[in-house]
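In keeping with the milestone schedule agreed at the kick-off meeting, the structural modelling team has produced records for the first pair of proteins. Each record is given below as a sequence line and a structure-token line. The laboratory manager (R.T.) confirmed that both were archived under the project's standard naming scheme.
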Amino acid sequence: MTISENIVSFVSELNSTLRDQTIPPRIDKAIKMYKKETNLLYIEKENEFLTAVIKSQTHPKELEYAVKLNKDGSFFCGTQNLHPCGGLRGKICKHIILALFAAIKSKQGTKEELIKWVQNTNFQKPSLDKTEATRIFLKYQNALEGKIEC
């Protein structure tokens, strides 16, 4: 899969927005995952938040991650066992970046809007909300089973 011009532009803005040495390798890993088209399992974008379920890059048969990025910059990424993602280390991880790519590709969010959300993460630390992570996984599971939420 080739990377669209829209994603390339987003990556450039993301790099300049974050200016953190730990972020470029995360972006590179997210791009590799994006190109495979097998890691993104579920995505939902609302006015105030973006959620997704991402399959692990290193342990795809055993591990999935629930991610959430809020408009205010609060965020988390955690496994189905409700453990925080080891790649966070105080900043957004490759799973969140992959969800951002998917939101742009599916036109669920604009580059400008999502860059602002990412800028807001500079003032936040990740905090795993286990109740919310469980809700994201259940919503994904219900979607797999064809169940409609009311």
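The second protein of the pair:
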Amino acid sequence: MEKPIERAIHSVRMGELKVARDGDQLRTLLGSCVGIALYDRRSRAGGLAHVVLPQAHGKSELPGKYIDTAVPKLICELESLVGTSLRLSAKIAGGAKMFQSEGPKQIGEMNIRACEGILRKIGVPVLAHHCGGTRGRKMTLDTATGNVVIEIVGQVPIKL
């Protein structure tokens, strides 16, 4: 009897980004933050960033914390992992309105707009998204398939 292949699950914390391949999974928990999953179908490699804010404003530490630094860093990490040109697609999630007192400018909404804007600018198509709302969610990228599964407590998981 063949032993099943064990797949690793890598947690991506707030402000972090990670890349993986060979069927490993990348997982994060999101509220107003946005999860950006980039995937290359040919190499079956992907990356996940848990971004907190739209812009770094020149800050160089923690590139995964800001959308404008996380996306280029994630692409660079994927290129290093795969060693070939990439044909990336994206799936995004998060950006919930977690607090009633956030004011007129909702950070979740700002994160979603910034994410969509940078991906459009660099030519990476967004294939699916699960954004907004008022509840947090778990986001999991499966590098074997490129599928992203969204889980919200009390709801049926959604495959993007």
